Amino acid sequence: MKIRSQVSMVFHLDKCIGCHTCSLACKNIWTDRQGAEYMWWNNVETKPGVGFPTLWEDQEKYNGGWELKNAGKEPRLNLKLQNRLQALGNLFSNPSMPTMSEYYEPWTYKYEDLINSPLGDDQPIARAISRIDGKPIDIETGPNWDDDLGGSNIYAVNDPLLKNMSEEEKRRLFSIEQLFYFYVPRICNHCLNAACVAACPSGAIYKRAEDGIVLVNQDKCRGWRMCVSGCPYKKTYYNWSTGKSEKCILCYPRLETGQAPACFHSCVGRIRYLGVLLYDADQVETAVEVPDEQLVQRQREMILDPFDPQVIAAAEESGIPAGVIEAAQQSPVYRYVKEWELALPLHPEFRTLPMLFYVPPLLPVISSTQESGAQRTESDLFSSLESARVPVRFMSHMLSAGNDAPVIKAYQRMIAVRLYKRAETVGDVSNEEAAAALTKAGMSAGDAEAIYRLTSLPTHQQRFVIPPSSRESAIEQVQDPQQHKAETGFGRRQAPHRGL
Q: Which pTM does this prediction carry?
């Protein structure tokens, strides 16, 4: 058993209000430079919707992630983008590369025309101009273009997740009286089996051993952009000014000083949780070679119990500091992902083993109207899920590779917590109904109370359990500091060019 530690995240979608404060916090710190105007290391998408870049979930178009060959016999995992021979050809022409139209051409406004225009009968305007070539442009799309049209049949009907859904399920999504949409914040998933790392011809992308953060070495990057195509989440970007690739670095300079990443710290809805997970690195290969319906459970099996004495002993033998093990025991991510099984990985069928997990949104699931016109909580878990305005099928396509069971289980537990607290505080649900809901969900009252408190009443320290930095000790283990600097781009006490 080869144990590694991974800084991991949970986003609670039931609490996201779509304010984009996280996106602006990241933008102001990391991507406000020339060549990075169109980059949004953190963006918030409206679902149903096409996302950013446009249709990023459609891997028939972009060929991101991995694909499994010969499932069940002699499974073999291949990059969906290319084999070794195709990699050579893609250096010269890569049809899977997103174009500027799939993102958007960054623009500003020619404000001086408002001041310097000659006198006349017409009111001068500030025309939109490109920030790349300075020429006037017609704005046709943007990073959150469908935000104000969320759930409408203008953009949402093109959502790739709707491809395998029935007409009845689509009707429930788009009927005007039941119109509903929710927000999905996205950052780099810092995957265990990152496709961007495998796709890079120059070996410029690497995963830090001490915390699992994926970074781009700017000295090694040659701008081939295979990382952009290989990442199925399209969270690696090309800087047209420097000719290098850039991506989310999980604000590791902040983490190394005990601070939460900027997008986490600034989150208005407090939907973000950060902690460390211990996992068995020997299981990575087998975890991605199972059929789609087993991917979520297999990924959870990789995550180890930080309270298990055998795991603790193996972690210490693997060189994991005691402070990191203690942080893993307090990790809110472990509780959401492994203990409560509420949080799910985004598109596990891409087989990158993403380490960012999502608690699905609950609000449209439990609302029902009585004959009197009053709104009442639905206590029958299965009927409430079947009549949900957002079909379970939609969520399972997004969070569990089409397997409904993990999503239903998460919803059952979330609904049970809601019923338990309504019975306790509002009184419109009987104690018997609440107890029955907890039994169906396989939970105790203590579990429900713990989920409620970590969801609704967590302190800053409970949401962000940041492991102590082992950066210095990791660097000190290098025998030749000069060789280490040449290979990674940073010396003993210097960070790797901010990861940019």
A: 0.89
